[in-house]
Task: inverse folding
């Protein structure tokens, strides 16, 4: 350990002149010839340190070559060289100090240095220390990462020493954090370790938990007498409790050869089969053995004849278990350290929990944005106009395929998305207008017929898309700058694409409010939906307004399709995934009101994430429970969260 | 005459607009009453409250000798208690024959099973015939209700109400859109009906109200403005201001 | 009373006669009982079609007459199939397993048999324990009861919730669609207890029956025909009486019916539940002929197709529903089965497998717009012409 410190001190001073030792690599090697030739982990340490401390620029390269088994010894004079194979059994040697070639030799004249894994580990450590003080900050960072991957006790001292001279602030912070982590794991002094543990209270880093968790790992122990006093005991477990069932406890006894195995029904069966004698087992006919009681009788008879081990059942197990105490011990022997680690972990868990809640909230908001995007078109056609459009999902699909086609033509993803958004609006707007003109306008005030007719359109469009684009999913690739995520800490992160969708949802909300509240079309739409006859008598053409409003709703569905296509697969059936949720969003939120759609989307988004959190393995179940919840919710607020009251709500 | 229906201190508002404001109203057995008032006075909302379609924010609605509250009951329960309602627009089942319309309205057990097993007896058919004769639809019994004229539909609806044998009849603008002869017939029907039960008629047409020759209640802004004979209320200056004087 | 019912509803007699003659002709032409012109697989198709006609009758009752556009009746159909499928699968596995275990050196105990059945049935979803819903799978009687009971209770609970809060019209349709989706998603899970998306299979084999499929298929065909006849008569009887009047009243003007003193919710609930039970019985007859049932059968779109059949056939008239379901489902089988000839256009060949759904969707729009009475409406035209002639 001391020698390592010296080596490190030497490394620290690497850049400063005048402290060089005057030996060449070859001289150092020759001085320690015996140790090098028969290198072992126990003895080679000083040699490696001397090389490392030699302040020779070739030292690092030599250590690397040594570790890679590229160093050869010439049998004739015992000198060491780098060797490279030039032909079969023919090696070119170069001098480690000068780097000059000394000629080619056959293998029988040479002896390869083959450091074993222990020695290679020492070499690697030495190399890491080299890198830790490397003039190139990138190399230093690399070294730190290498240490993080495989921390050892040997890393601790040099790391501490390298902190003070570290110029780069980030690296310095990194080094000191790693130093504290290594202290927790490897420092011999308990108080120092506890202090280091306490310094991490509430830290969210995965590395902290990875360091602390091994400290509180427990292993199960069994004793027949009193609890030992020299072990760090976590807790005593009673067999038959929730954490340890009786059979499991007994299995532990069996595994430690403290008890004979329990007799299972399979054991009985096997024993009986093994002792069939002329259609009988212990004088009981085989035909009777379909009854478990009789099987047991036969087994007991066999046991009496000592042909099989005596039967051990539940009672025997319970009796046997009374004689033993089960307890868990920490691998870490210091009680103070394990207590501190547990305290720190529980504080971290609390903090992690809070941050997970935040993360979940962000997830829920982004899911709500998606639902809102999917539903906003419906909020116009269904909510405001009262037209139920089962092909709404197919408009979303149409928008997504528009995006896909645009990307086939324009390879630049940023440009193609910017083109696709308005184009998708135009395409679905047109489709919506055509549908309104050809079908829906004949069916106003006949909602069930509208439902069925638009459903017919929905299956036709779906199949049409399948015929054109095939059944496999088509990609709609987001621009590169939307890749990646905004990482707040090791727990909370949100991908840029979700942020983008959230922003898009906000824009949609703004645009929608603007159109409905501030434009002529919005005014006319509200007029026509409230009283078409009166609107007509005021010179508003209800047909035109209906057409444009429906087109608008459809167009927005198309734009939503592009957005949804960016993170979901574009298939001909993607509309199915959103149609029910969209309707639920509008219905739950309250019909006829954009804030209703927003409230509905928020509620459903949060609800689904909440249920998924409660039951993380199963998103299918989450959707099931969510729908059931919605059905029950409608019991209490049949008109949705934001309900229009009184006569205006209609009957 | 005992009180059949008592509405007291009832208020209801929609989005801040007080449609009914501290309204009190009473009607006795076998009484004919006309309710008049300008648009928005709360006439229809008043009927909605009595028949259970709208729940009031406050107040009481007490029914019958046993003084049961109607506020907790569903529309169907209230109808079964004996309150019949005729809507402004004639609402009969146009896809079914006049006879089927009558049969549906006949006072019988309304449970699902008894409806399923119900087959009209001879007495039922005779009762339908009598009702049809009373409202003047005997010749139309096997026609679809949708094929009837506007006035005939109104009568069918009144006939259906009578078939329910209600103790209180609420009739919303029965004479709207009728020819003078049809009006005459309608007013006779109502006066006749009021001999055996209470009848409340909401009507705009003063001529029609005069023909009913009964006590009149004037509603205004959700409350009772005046009550009394038609001559009495029409001479009331407040009534003239808000309603007749326009 | 019965004579008067038939006399008042001659269409019922016509229908029953037509169904009977169809059944007799098919029986004569069948492989199992007749001269073998119709293949066993086509007998199964016909039998399945009869079951679809039965559920269409139920759909017509609830939608065409009571005005409740349920997009969930196929879920009840599927549940009925699952209930009978559980017994078929359990019993067949039990016979196979018992026989295999009997080959062993000592006879199996009861729990060994059950464990073995469990791992046979649920091994595919990584389990060998019997879920709770399989409690009665060993009893044909109880499972048959469940065919009606489980969908019935589901319909009752759902309907009670929905009708109580006065959810009507398209809202109700959407809600029923959501219910169907929830059920399908639930069944898709591996731990739903019904083998996830593997579903139940091998249902065409009647346990303990040695008869070949040609015979078994005829049994089911005849049972389906009988069920359709009974279901149709029941539905016709219901709608011919005062209940039919009230239901049509609810369809046309719910509020008015309420003010006549009928508790509309109760009637809706009754008809919703009754039709759910009919649908479940149809499903219980359908899936043994199909041989396999999985959650994909239950997805909302299936129920919407059901509405499509009824609408194309003509809702509000029972024979319309039968015609619609029979016609559309058979023609769909023909087109999507690849039997329909392709139409070469020179630059493009119309392959019906690809284009049939487009045609169906558009023709559905056409029917809604131009022939709201459906195919059944043609009969009205014929009647009118006769009347004039």
Result:
């Amino acid at each position: 350990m001391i020698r390592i410190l010296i080596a490190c001190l030497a490394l620290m001073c690497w850049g400063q002149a005048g402290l060089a030792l005057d030996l060449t690599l070859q001289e150092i090697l020759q001085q320690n010839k015996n140790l090098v030739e028969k290198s072992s982990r126990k003895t080679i340490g000083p040699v490696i340190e001397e090389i490392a401390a030699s302040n020779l620029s070739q030292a690092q390269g030599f250590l690397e070559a040594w570790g890679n088994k590229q160093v050869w010894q010439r049998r004739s004079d015992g000198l060491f060289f780098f060797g490279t194979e030039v032909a079969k059994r023919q090696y070119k040697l170069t001098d480690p100090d000068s780097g000059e070639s000394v000629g080619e030799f056959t293998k029988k004249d040479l002896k390869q240095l083959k450091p074993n894994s222990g020695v290679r580990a020492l070499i690697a450590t030495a190399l890491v220390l080299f890198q830790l003080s490397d003039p190139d900050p990138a190399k230093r960072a690399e070294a730190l990462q290498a240490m993080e991957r495989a921390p050892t006790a040997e890393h601790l001292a040099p790391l501490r020493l390298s902190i003070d001279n570290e110029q780069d602030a980030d690296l310095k912070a990194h080094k000191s954090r790693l130093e504290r982590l290594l202290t927790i794991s490897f420092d011999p002094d308990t108080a120092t370790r506890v202090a280091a543990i306490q310094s991490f209270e509430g830290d969210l880093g995965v590395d902290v938990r990875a360091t602390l968790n091994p400290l509180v790992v427990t292993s199960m122990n069994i004793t027949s007498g009193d609890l030992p006093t020299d072990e760090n005991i976590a807790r005593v477990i009673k067999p038959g409790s929730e954490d340890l069932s009786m059979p499991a406890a007994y299995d532990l006894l069996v595994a430690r050869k403290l008890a004979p195995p329990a007799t299972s029904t399979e054991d009985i069966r096997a024993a009986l089969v093994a002792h069939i004698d002329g259609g009988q087992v212990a004088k009981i006919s085989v035909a009777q053995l379909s009854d478990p009681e009789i099987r047991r009788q036969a087994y007991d008879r066999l046991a009496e004849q000592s042909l099989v081990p005596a039967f051990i059942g539940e009672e025997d197990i319970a009796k046997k278990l009374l004689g033993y105490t089960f307890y868990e011990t920490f691998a870490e022997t210091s009680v103070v350290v394990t207590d501190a680690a547990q305290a720190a972990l529980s504080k971290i868990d609390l903090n992690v929990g809070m941050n997970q809640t935040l993360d979940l909230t962000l997830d829920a908001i982004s899911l709500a944005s998606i639902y809102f995007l999917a539903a906003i078109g419906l909020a116009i056609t269904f909510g405001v106009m009262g037209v139920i459009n089962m092909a709404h999902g197919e408009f979303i699909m149409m928008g997504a395929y528009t995006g896909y086609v645009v990307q086939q033509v324009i390879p630049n993803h940023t440009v193609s998305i910017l083109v696709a958004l308005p184009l998708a609006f135009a395409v679905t707007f047109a489709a919506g207008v055509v549908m309104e003109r050809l079908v829906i306008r004949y069916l106003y005030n006949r909602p069930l017929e509208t439902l069925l007719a638009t459903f017919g359109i929905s299956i036709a469009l779906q199949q049409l898309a399948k015929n054109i684009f095939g059944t496999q999913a088509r990609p709609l690739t987001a621009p590169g700058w939307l890749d990646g995520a905004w990482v707040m800490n090791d727990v909370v992160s949100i991908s840029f694409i979700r942020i983008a969708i959230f922003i898009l949802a906000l824009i949609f909300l703004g645009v929608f409010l603007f159109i409905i509240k501030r434009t002529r079309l919005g005014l006319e739409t509200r007029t026509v939906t409230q009283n078409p006859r009166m609107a007509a008598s005021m010179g508003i053409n209800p047909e035109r307004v209906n057409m444009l409003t429906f087109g608008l709703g459809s167009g927005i569905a198309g734009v939503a399709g592009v957005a949804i296509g960016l993170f979901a697969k574009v298939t001909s059936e993607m509309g199915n995934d959103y149609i029910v949720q969209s309707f639920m969003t509008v219905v739950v939120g309250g019909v006829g009101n954009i804030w209703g759609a927003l409230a509905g989307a928020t509620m459903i988004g949060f609800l689904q994430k909440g249920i998924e959190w409660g039951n993380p393995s199963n998103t299918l179940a989450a959707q099931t429970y969510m729908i059931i919840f919605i059905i029950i919710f409608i019991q209490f607020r049949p008109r949705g969260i934001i309900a229009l009251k009184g006569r205006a709500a209609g009957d | 005459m005992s009180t059949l229906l008592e509405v007291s201190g009832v208020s209801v508002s929609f989005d801040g607009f007080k449609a009914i404001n501290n309204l009190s109203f009473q009607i006795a057995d076998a009484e004919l009453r006309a309710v008049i008032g300008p648009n928005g006075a709360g006439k229809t909302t008043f009927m909605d409250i009595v028949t259970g379609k709208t729940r009031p924010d406050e107040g009481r609605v007490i029914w019958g000798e046993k003084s049961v509250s109607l506020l907790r009951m569903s529309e169907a329960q209230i109808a079964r208690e004996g309150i019949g309602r005729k809507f402004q627009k004639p609402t009969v089942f146009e896809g079914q024959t006049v006879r089927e319309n009558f049969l549906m309205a006949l006072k019988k057990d309304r449970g699902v099973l008894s409806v399923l097993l119900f087959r009209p007896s001879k007495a039922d058919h005779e009762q339908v015939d009598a009702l049809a004769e009373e409202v003047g639809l005997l010749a139309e019994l096997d026609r679809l209700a949708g094929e009837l004229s506007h006035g005939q539909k109104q009568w069918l609806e009144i006939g259906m109400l009578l078939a329910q044998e209600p103790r209180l009849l609420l009739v919303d603008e029965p004479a709207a859109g009728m020819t003078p002869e049809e009006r005459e017939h309608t007013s006779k029907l109502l006066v006749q009906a009021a001999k055996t039960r209470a009848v409340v008629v909401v009507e705009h047409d003063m001529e029609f109200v005069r023909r009913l020759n009964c006590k009149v209640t004037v509603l205004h802004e959700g409350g009772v403005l005046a009550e009394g004979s038609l001559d009495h209320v029409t001479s009331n200056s407040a009534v003239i201001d808000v309603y007749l004087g326009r | 009373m019965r004579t008067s019912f038939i006399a008042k509803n001659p269409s019922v007699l016509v229908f029953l006669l037509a169904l009977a003659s169809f059944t007799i002709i098919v029986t004569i032409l069948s492989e199992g009982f007749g001269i073998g012109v119709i293949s066993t697989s086509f007998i199964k198709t016909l039998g399945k079609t009869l079951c679809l006609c039965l559920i269409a009758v139920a759909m017509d009752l609830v939608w065409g007459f009571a005005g409740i556009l349920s997009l969930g009746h196929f879920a009840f159909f599927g549940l009925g199939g699952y209930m009978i499928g559980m017994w078929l699968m359990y019993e067949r596995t039990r016979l196979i397993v018992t026989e295999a275990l009997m080959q062993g050196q000592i006879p199996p105990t009861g729990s060994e048999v059950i464990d073995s059945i469990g791992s046979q049935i649920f091994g595919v979803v990584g389990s060998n324990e019997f879920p709770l819903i399989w409690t009665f799978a060993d009893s044909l009687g109880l499972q048959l009861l469940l065919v009606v009971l489980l969908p019935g209770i589901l319909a009752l609970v759902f309907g009670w919730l929905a009708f109580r809060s006065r959810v009507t019209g398209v809202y109700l349709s959407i809600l029923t669609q959501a219910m169907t989706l929830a059920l399908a998603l639930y069944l898709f899970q591996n731990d739903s207890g019904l083998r996830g998306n593997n579903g139940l299979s091998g249902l065409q084999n009647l346990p303990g029956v040695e008869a070949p499929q040609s015979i078994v298929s005829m049994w089911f065909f005849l049972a389906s025909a009988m069920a359709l006849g009974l279901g149709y008569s029941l539905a016709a009887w219901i709608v011919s009486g005062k209940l039919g009047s009230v239901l049509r009243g609810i369809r046309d003007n719910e509020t008015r019916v309420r003010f006549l003193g009928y508790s509309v919710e109760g009637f809706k609930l009754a008809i919703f539940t009754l039709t759910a039970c009919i649908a479940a019985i149809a499903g219980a007859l359908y899936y043994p002929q199909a041989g396999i049932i999985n959650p994909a059968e239950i997805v909302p779109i299936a129920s919407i197709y059901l509405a499509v059949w009824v609408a194309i056939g003509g809702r509000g008239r029972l024979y319309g529903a039968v015609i619609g379901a029979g016609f559309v489902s058979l023609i769909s089988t023909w087109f999507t089965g690849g039997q329909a000839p392709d139409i070469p256009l020179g630059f493009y060949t119309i392959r019906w497998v690809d284009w049939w759904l487009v045609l169906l969707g558009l023709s559905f729009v056409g029917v809604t717009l131009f022939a709201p009475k459906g195919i059944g409406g043609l009969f009205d035209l014929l009647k009118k012409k006769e009347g004039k002639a």
Observations:
- Chain B is about 35% helix and 25% strand.
